[in-house]
Design brief:
This protein has a 3-stranded antiparallel sheet with strand order 1-2-3. It has 2 domains: 167 residues, no CATH class; 101 residues, no CATH class. The protein is mainly alpha-helical. The protein contains 13 helices and 5 strands. It is elongated. 28% of the residues are buried.
Length: 274
């Protein structure tokens, strides 16, 4: 279930939040990206994609023209420009968890409207619809859609079932756990670390961080209920048994620290070789 902090009929991006409830009844909130962040991200990506098109155009077209094929050069150049202009967004959003360089700079990300990571199909749909959002010029259609939509959606988002959110600011992972509660058998388990990084989705890692950061804002009863539900859900998700001596909250905090800890250099090197 998805809700928002906006009044009925008011664009949700004005209140900046979207709340997602998991099947385990755990809720987490995303800040919606406003029009200004999205516009600046698009301008950055436009400059980068134009630069890529210019470089490829000069290399390929000039090579074909020097080979005495000016007609072929123009056709190939136009095809490459179209492919790069559209493929830039599709490929990067599909492979980089809903982020392009412009979105990374502005701290925003595309997600499935249910809070999941977007699929390649969703990345393709929302960006193929970009041609409609750009009409008649300078994103006029898309801008009107964003301003009128309850969750700030352009037509591409409506067609793909996606939403653009702000990437939460995550503190240093070691701050999630008080020194006296650190269980080195978990934190030092490289195989567990790899499993957490491989299995958990982006929004699940965000949920762990959100629970760790916001736990002190919860009353005792809600805090216990939420962490028990989260511990059970993540135990099942990771096929991991919680240590008998560890509370649900401490277990979740350890998973949060593991999920957001930097990958060990030796493990990174091994992954690159593979």
């Amino acid at each position: 279930m998805i809700g928002s902090g906006a009044l009925r009929g008011t664009p949700a991006w004005l209140s900046n939040t979207m709340t997602v409830s998991t099947p385990e009844a755990v809720e987490f909130t995303y800040d919606l990206a406003g029009p200004s962040h999205r516009l600046l991200a698009w301008l950055i990506d436009t400059m980068i994609s134009f630069a890529l098109i210019a470089v490829v155009w000069m290399i390929v077209v000039l090579a074909l023209m020097s080979a005495g094929m000016p007609g072929t050069a123009e056709a190939v150049g136009r095809t490459l420009a179209f492919a790069i202009g559209g493929g830039y967004y599709i490929v990067l959003e599909a492979l980089s968890h809903g982020q392009t360089p412009g979105k990374k700079v502005m701290g925003i990300r595309v997600l499935d409207s249910r809070g999941f990571r977007i699929t390649p199909a969703q990345a393709a749909i929302r960006n193929l619809m970009r041609a409609v959002d750009l009409l008649p010029f300078c994103y006029l259609v898309g801008g009107i859609s964003i301003l009128c939509s309850r969750r700030g959606l352009r037509l591409g988002d409506l067609a793909a079932g996606t939403v653009v959110v702000r990437v939460p600011s995550i503190p240093a992972p070691e701050s999630f756990l008080p020194p006296g509660q650190r269980e080195e058998s978990l934190l030092g388990d490289f195989s567990l670390g790899e499993r957490v990084r491989r299995v958990l989705l982006v929004q699940e890692k965000d949920l762990l961080a959100s629970l760790a950061v916001r736990r002190d804002r919860l009353d005792e009863r809600s805090r216990m209920k939420i962490f028990e539900a989260a511990a059970t859900a993540f135990s099942n998700r990771l096929s991991l048994m919680r240590p008998m001596t560890m509370s649900a909250e401490t277990f979740v905090l350890h998973l949060a620290a593991i999920a957001h800890a930097p990958r060990p250099a030796g493990v990174r090197a091994a992954a690159v070789r593979l």
